[in-house]
Fold this protein.
Amino acid sequence: MQLTATLNQLLPLQTGESKNGTWKKQDIILEIDGQYPKKICVSIWGDKINENQLQVGNVLTIFYELESREYNNKWYTDIKAWKIETNESIATTIPNNEMVIPQNFHSQDEEDDENLPF
């Protein structure tokens, strides 16, 4: 799947150690234009993090996969980028009412943030 959106915010880079070695993760906030703009958090892992692409205001095409997992009878969904393209000219070529995003995509209410496992 893919979506095209403007990079709105970079969250702090996360790093750590696991049995496979050092890992790093960058979460970014994208904004999809339209009558009702939507913000989406996308996770980028490891060597796919390219600081030259990740500049606030850049129009990015994100190729991603969705993954959900259950914790304490609640479900959490991650959007993980596997490829990112920077395309400044795409903002002028895609009409505002054409969004590349699944029709059944809905965000969940975030009631219990303090109980999140991550």
